[in-house]
Amino acid sequence: xxxxxxxTSCLLVIGNEVLSGRTQDVNIKxxxxxLGEIGMPLREVRIIPDVPETIxxxxxxxxxxxxxxFTTGGIGPTxxxxxxECVATALGVPWVKHQEAWARLExxxxxxxxxxxxxxxxxxxxxxxxxxNPISIAPGYSIGNVHVxxxxxxxxxxxxxxxxxxxxGGKPVIARAVHAAGLPEGRIAEELGAIQARFPTVDIGSxxxxxxxxxxxxxxxxxTDPALAAAAIDSVTELMARLGATPVEGEPPV
Amino acid sequence: xxxxxxxTSCLLVIGNEVLSGRTQDVNIKxxxxxLGEIGMPLREVRIIPDVPETIxxxxxxxxxxxxxxFTTGGIGPTxxxxxxECVATALGVPWVKHQEAWARLExxxxxxxxxxxxxxxxxxxxxxxxxxNPISIAPGYSIGNVHVxxxxxxxxxxxxxxxxxxxxGGKPVIARAVHAAGLPEGRIAEELGAIQARFPTVDIGSxxxxxxxxxxxxxxxxxTDPALAAAAIDSVTELMARLGATPVEGEPPV
Lengths: 254, 254
Fold this sequence. Notes:
Two copies of one chain form a homodimer.
Chain A: E1 9-14, H1 16-19, H2 27-37, E2 42-48, H3 52-65, E3 68-72, H4 83-91, E4 95-97, H5 99-108, H6 116-119, E5 123-125, E6 129-131, E7 140-143, E8 146-149, H7 153-163, E9 174-181, H8 185-198, E10 203-211, E11 214-223, H9 226-242, E12 248-249
Parallel strand pairs in A: 1-2, 1-3, 3-8
Antiparallel strand pairs in A: 4-5, 6-7, 7-8, 9-11, 9-12, 10-11
Helix pairs in contact in A: 3-4, 8-9
């Protein structure tokens, strides 16, 4: 088996609208899922405001700490869209007209409508490699290990799928789950810890649930070795049955 | 007018389940909204895994940088619930039995069921001040400027409301909004920037929306001075009308 560890990733969600509670973020879950699937698991998320020093400082901190950094938000035409200038400053490169992005936007708008505000969307850190935007044209881009995407979920998702083929992923992270109604996690906690100790390369999580249909606990095992994740869940299933509960494969119904 | 700046806050979401995409976080939006309402705006969120060094390092970094730190997740009875030990280590205090928390849990469980795993939920950094949990008993706690809460949304929300009266809040953050269908943000961007410049203490955000009912742009003005937020939105409303759009007060319908 290939023992190369998977590359790590970090997501920066840039925008006051998430920090103020105006917007329910849905980009984190999408990217967390997709990055796990392509073997580049998400190790940290930071949600930061539209403040230049914060963006610049955070980009520099996380691009040094993680193999890949994804950003969402702040690449539109308005005064609060400052991600792009900040990434250029963080990387110490000029923020310049990108010929191809400029050409795409010029073709897209009617004559006279490609105004200075919109021209900012074609201004990028020197050396940026475009990420296609099939929804609303204005592209994202990669520069070094930083991948800059839009914040609108539909656009971000399309950009990520355009980018994914050129990302150096690793082994997919596989999840297996089992759940049992009426079983409090406090009853399985001690033996579950022992199972985790037996499977150190599998990440075992315990998640109590509270549903209209009833309460219980779901145990999820994640890892890059499907056989080990399955074996861990088999052990949990046995444990649940031994305690008199009825284990059911998979996550509990919503 | 009182010119004391509002205290700042930071949220740490602790748990692999959000980073793996298993769980759609809803705690961020709740806390962002409530913290704005009590005048302690959220300035940063970090989502971090159940890794001791990461939790300890992050707690120490953000408790020095922000006035208040809130954590969600990792205070249950299972092996992956390690927030509490990590907070004790970060603060350099022993992790010890909390008499009152212990008494509450001992009363709650049937004889013999308050097992070692559950006893961990009554083990806290020395000096912890309890945060009541009216839903499932096991309390959260404050220690210094760090407030440790559960991850299950219903429990976290109840804990926050129990905690809120003793938080030293500031001036509530007020939001005013206006939206216009059919207006691309690229058309108002330049003049919107000029309005932002005229209202430097108001935080003006521009949010394009894409709905089944149609596309458009919503402009939100936030600040602690209601008159200034309203004046900024009045200027935006005028601008939208001047450009031939039909401005409508408030956020666009969902």
